[in-house]
Amino acid sequence: MAEDALETRGRQVTRSNLARSEQFNGWAFVMPALVLLGIFMVYPILWSLWMSFQVGRGMNFSFGGLANIIRLTQDPVFLRALSNTMLFLAVQVPIMLILALLCASALNDSKLWGRGFFRTAIFLPCVTSLVAYAVVFKSMFAQDGILNQMLMGLNFISGPIPWFSDPFWAKAVIISAITWRWTGYNMIFYLAAMQNIDRSIYEAARIDGVPAWARFWYITVPMLKPVILFTTVISTIGTLQLFDEPNLLTQGGPSDSTLTLSMYIYNLSFRFMPSFGYAATVSYVIVVLVGILSFLQFLAARDRRR
Amino acid sequence: MSSVKLRGVRKSFGSVEVIKGVDLDIDSKEFVVFVGPSGCGKTTLLRMIAGLEGITTGDLEIGDARMNEVDPSKRGIAMVFQSYALYPHMTVRENMGFALRFARVPKDEIARQVEGAARILALEPLLNRFPKELSGGQRQRVAIGRAIVRQPEVFLFDEPLSNLDAELRVHMRIEIARLHKELKTTIVYVTHDQVEAMTLADKIVVLRDGIIEQVGRPLDLYDDPANQFVAGFIGSPKMNFLSAQVKEVGSGGVTIGLVNEGDASLRMPVAPNGTKVGDTVTLGIRPEHFGDAGQGGADLTVAVDVAEHLGSTSYIYANTTSSEQIIIEREESRSEIGMDQVTVSISAEKAFLFDQNGVRLR
Amino acid sequence: MSNPIALLGRTAQYVLLSFAAFISIFPFFWMAVGATNTSPDIVRGKATPGSALLTNIVTFFTSEDLPRVLFNSFFIAGVGTVLTLLVSSLAGYGFEIFRSRVREKVFGGMLLMLSIPFAALMIPLFVMMANLKLINTYQAIILPTVASIFIIFYFRQATKAFPTELRDAARIDGLKEWQIFLHVYMPVMRSTYAAATIIVFMTHWNNYLWPLIVLQTNDMKVLTLVVASLTSAYNPNYGTVMVGAIVATLPTLVIFFLLQRRFVEGMLGAVK
């Protein structure tokens, strides 16, 4: 009889205290973050999605359907900002990541003299305050500034380069500034990942007579693929949101040649007569671009793995 | 010291059932070893006793109190983990006293308990070191010390020796056996190593796929395995299994013939238990139980593959005519050196017979 | 090193690294030298120390209510960093240790939001802050950045290297889940926290766009805004701004050098 009672009790599949407390704790630990994200991220995203269908100035707006999207296609300033941003992305991200990868593989050598110094030095730029490095760059790239003097001293150029008044060179300033700041940051990710690769794999490859470039290309790069993908996505997102550097160095000029999408959104919202609805539409262009590009990058990474 | 009782205990992760109904009595002060291949559920079962995993259905009692829903720290247990799980940011002293600190034991009492445990394990000179400054064996002792400090009713060990090298493993095995004598607590010990099970246990529980295959004293499992799985798992080197066919079923037993061995037949004094003439059965014989040619019920001539001569013992790895691999163990033997073929005998008293489902015929 | 190809490789290695290190460090040198020179000298490219340091310091420190500005910056970055590390590490730990199907979906959704640019959020956030009457307050700056998806992701990755047996041992030792987090997880993961501190402090300290939108009066301004407004003047006084640049850079540099040793360790754990 006692046995039977035990049997019946045993068969009731109840969730044990343990499972309940795991559930409770799981939510308790993530809740503060989720509440904050809900208020300061999810709600604004939905709000701006709704706003992107509104037209009007300031806080007076009305439903405009697709009016904002039509306006996008006819807005020369937007198209300029979009092409500038895409150009920054296409040129800057590959240069920076390749430089970072080269520096990391040069540093990943325990016999290297001055390794700690090099690592710290190359990482240092990303620790600087953004506004601080903006002023430094602005003064270095001045018409009679140190950079033009150096280049002329080395006979690379005959006259000073008009860094900030020529559209091409203004873009070059922005690209070199971002690259200067973020190469070391990406390098640290690569370096950390390289140090996780088992050293004996390289030793085996050396014994097999694999040359150094092939060890880099056929061992290091494939094993770093997840990190490379990660840094590519992060850098893409960062460059698409580019605001600080052009705003401080060139104010988008000359004649909008360094205007980015984020700057344009800022100008639409806070500089001109506020046009929140249209600004929200432009911001969704960035969301869509990030989505498409991240997806393509994941796809590319997966294809190469096959 | 407490007993532990498991009644109809089951455990599912989602739709996968890993413990499929376990009933077990562990007596007070008993040293019980759970043994089985990896994935058999032995660690899960231990973690259920500890309270680290929930029990899906069934009942767990420790010291006659139902413990299913009791917090791990209030079950009167202490656990020694496979990785030792020492807190890396605390000294040995802090590691050992950590549980008492959270049980609001006064400081001087904690110090006294820690010193006491350290004395038992000869850890006194190491008390102010950090885990990373200790050797593997020392870490192991600290992990045991941390368990002792809590003065548990039941000690739980989860494969505690698997991270040690062979020599240290033997040393710690003896230390744990000594400790059990000294502390006289109930111990539940999980291992995949049948040698540890045989040497340490008062009682061995052999598990496979979440089911208990057999429970018994170490030598009882060796002498009298319930089925082919237990027979193969207990004993080193493993028991040899040879396919055989039933030739005759009589009142006094079953006569079998080994496959591809011509006339060689053996009369086993067992009840047929439904086995019919022509059925395929398995004959089990331990490497150490082969006799010299002509001395048993049936002779078997095998081709020598490799022979290892260790001095006191020789192991001969050989193939039968039907390409079944067997191991023969010989004491103080020199006669097989350099031979291509060996003839040994099998006697019915030393052999076991298993039916098609692996159940032993007795 | 008898092999000529190996020698060549080694030389290339040093040339590359020396060049990269020079480019990386030169602007710091330039900043330090610039602080001692007058504005015309800087624009003229004078790379030797001058005698205007004292004048530049005095001009910078009297240009605004600087003690107030520094307090604002340190307060926002300090409180912001502590809150971000706490909230984000709690979440990263929670997502990794307590697995459930629903929370995995929530986490996946969060990762998707990682790609949402701040530009898309700033208008609604601004309107929200205006409605809550929080414009020009510390809360308005700190609150939106406390739950950082990137840092949550970072902590979750790092938690994969946290031995779960430590949590089991602590449970048997009688610790509640929050005590395990406080007394076991946090001290064991100090390297992870160190690396995160550098990144998080940097983002809070260097934050420019959001303060530019939300902070409006002089007494609430942060250092980035002051230095930026000095820089974007039509004819900036570079000597003065260089002093400002040094003041704005020093705290992050100090934190970096203090935590550097743990930083690489922490990154290592996160990339695994």
Automatic annotation (TrEMBL), chain A:
InterPro entries: ABC_transporter_permease (IPR051393), MetI-like (IPR000515), MetI-like_sf (IPR035906). It holds the Pfam family BPD_transp_1. It is a multi-pass membrane protein. It comes from Devosia nitrariae. The keyword Thylakoid does not apply. This is Lactose ABC transporter permease. Belongs to the binding-protein-dependent transport system permease family. It comes from the Bacteria. It is found in: Cell membrane. Keywords: Cell membrane, Membrane, Transmembrane, Transmembrane helix, Transport. Residues 82-297 form the ABC transmembrane type-1 domain. The chain crosses the membrane at residues 24-50, 86-104, 116-136, 168-192, 223-243, 276-300.
From TrEMBL, chain B:
Keywords: ATP-binding, Cell inner membrane, Cell membrane, Membrane, Nucleotide-binding, Transport. The keyword Repeat does not apply. One of its GO terms (molecular function) is ATP binding. The keyword Nucleotide-binding applies. Residues 4-234 form the ABC transporter domain. Transmembrane segments: none annotated. Gene3D superfamilies: 2.40.50.100, Nucleic acid-binding proteins (2.40.50.140), P-loop containing nucleotide triphosphate hydrolases (3.40.50.300). SUPFAM superfamilies: MOP-like (SSF50331), P-loop containing nucleoside triphosphate hydrolases (SSF52540). SMART domains: AAA (SM00382). Belongs to the ABC transporter superfamily. This is Sugar ABC transporter ATP-binding protein.
From TrEMBL, chain C:
Residues 70-259 form the ABC transmembrane type-1 domain. PROSITE patterns: ABC_TM1. Keywords: Cell membrane, Membrane, Transmembrane, Transmembrane helix, Transport. It comes from the Bacteria. CDD domains: TM_PBP2 (cd06261). Pfam families: BPD_transp_1. InterPro entries: MetI-like (IPR000515), MetI-like_sf (IPR035906). The chain crosses the membrane at residues 12-33, 74-95, 107-129, 135-155, 180-202, 238-259. It is a multi-pass membrane protein. It is found in: Cell membrane. PANTHER family: ABC TRANSPORTER PERMEASE PROTEIN MG189-RELATED-RELATED (PTHR43744), ARABINOOLIGOSACCHARIDES TRANSPORT SYSTEM PERMEASE PROTEIN ARAQ (PTHR43744:SF2). Belongs to the binding-protein-dependent transport system permease family. This is Lactose ABC transporter permease. It comes from Devosia nitrariae.
